[in-house]
Design goal:
0% strand; 207 residues; DNA-binding; 9 helices; homodimer; mainly alpha
Chain lengths: 207, 207
DNA sequence: ATCTTTGTACTGACTGGTCAGTATAAAGAT
DNA sequence: ATCTTTATACTGACCAGTCAGTACAAAGAT
């Protein structure tokens, strides 16, 4: 979703010109919603609270998203797209295994910046109600891992018979869990250190 | 409905305390609660629904656990203990890395049997409201992984400078994620196959 | 033996508050 | 003109927690 349509606002006067623009309002609501839902969970988060934190009227939320569920679906859609973009952009490196390390780092960095979304994703990912969003996640984000692993298997960097789909989920879940732990427990630890630990784990018994 | 005809079944439950049916009631409520919360989440699950599925009156839930939150805390306590026992029991093997594989398998098997709890744990684990339960989880379950990894580091099976705490969380989160995916998406796949994939991933670039 | 009391486990109708969603009038923005 | 947002007020369903009462077993008491 989110056609980046900036709507040609005449010329100059760029910046946040469209003060009351719909896109702007939607983003404010997204930010507020993801923070609250990360803290309290979807069901315990009220639309009143979302609207208040976003600094908009309650009616605006319903005007823009139709319902609480509609808001949440749009939020998932929006955030999963961004995550998929970030992972795909990180898929670079000499060897496939270098690329794997790089994607792991990309995921860590994304969740460093969007920690609230990490929590929401972890909590809601397997709820049957949002199965469509999960399917999209598999197609767009997990497939980045699956492809890297497939490449590694194809040119002999790892066993050719590895189940890349399961392995992709495993790595994704591993990084997601660690990213959340880091934010919750060791917020000041440099991300590179966490990344190094994960890389060692994935590279196996290196001395 | 259903006049709980438990009555004096004579046998059932050891002589620990007369009127042993209270333990029975609590377990029925636990079972019902974990299933519903796995499906709907904590906040969206009503005490009415828990009581109905357990076949007890709503008042019984409050009589036994004081509040909805009290019920959930007792449930976490109960289940985390069982999980920790299962992991500790699986901590066996020639080398530390064999033990690691074994604990991973133990965790997979535990969540195979208690899939609903796996979902609840994943979703609620990092909610600040249950931080006490998370602390207990770290002490009792994650420490099994941390100890295995420490042993492996001590006798040179893996790098001595590995951050075992972070690695323990990583492995735990990886297995938890994959266990849930397996149940949701590939329930018929033998657990050994999933285990083999995780072992390969952990053992690194073996050809 | 029969009556009375006590403690434990449980029941389910009821209450008081909460919250998604609606309604509407008026104000900005383009 | 039309789209978007604001502010306020309202409705009705839903739900956590309460409470007066039931059931019943065991322990005195007579």
């Amino acid at each position: 979703m989110s056609e980046r349509s900036e709507r040609t606002n005449g010329h100059s006067s760029e910046r946040t010109a469209r003060r009351g623009s719909r896109q702007d309002t939607r983003l404010k609501v997204f930010r507020s919603a993801v923070e609250l839902i990360a803290e309290l969970g979807y069901a315990a988060t009220t639309v009143d609270a979302i609207a208040e934190r976003a600094g908009v009227a309650k009616g605006t939320v319903f005007y823009n998203f139709g319902s609480k569920e509609g808001l949440f679906e749009a939020l998932l859609e929006h955030s999963i797209s961004k995550l998929a973009e970030a992972l795909a952009a990180a898929d670079t490196g000499e060897s496939a295994l270098d690329a794997l390390d790089s994607v792991v780092l990309g995921q860590l960095r994304f969740f460093e910046e969007h920690g609230a979304f990490a929590r929401v994703l972890l909590a809601e990912m397997w709820r049957t109600a949002w199965q469509e969003a999960v399917a999209r996640l598999r197609r767009s984000a997990l497939s980045v891992y699956a492809n890297v692993l497939r490449r590694a298997a194809a040119n002999g960097e790892i066993r050719a018979d590895l189940d890349v789909e399961t392995a992709a989920t495993a790595v994704f879940g591993m990084v997601l869990t660690v990213a959340i732990e880091r934010r919750a427990l060791y917020p000041d630890r440099p991300i590179e250190r966490t990344h190094a630990t994960l890389a060692e784990l994935l590279h196996g018994r290196i001395k």
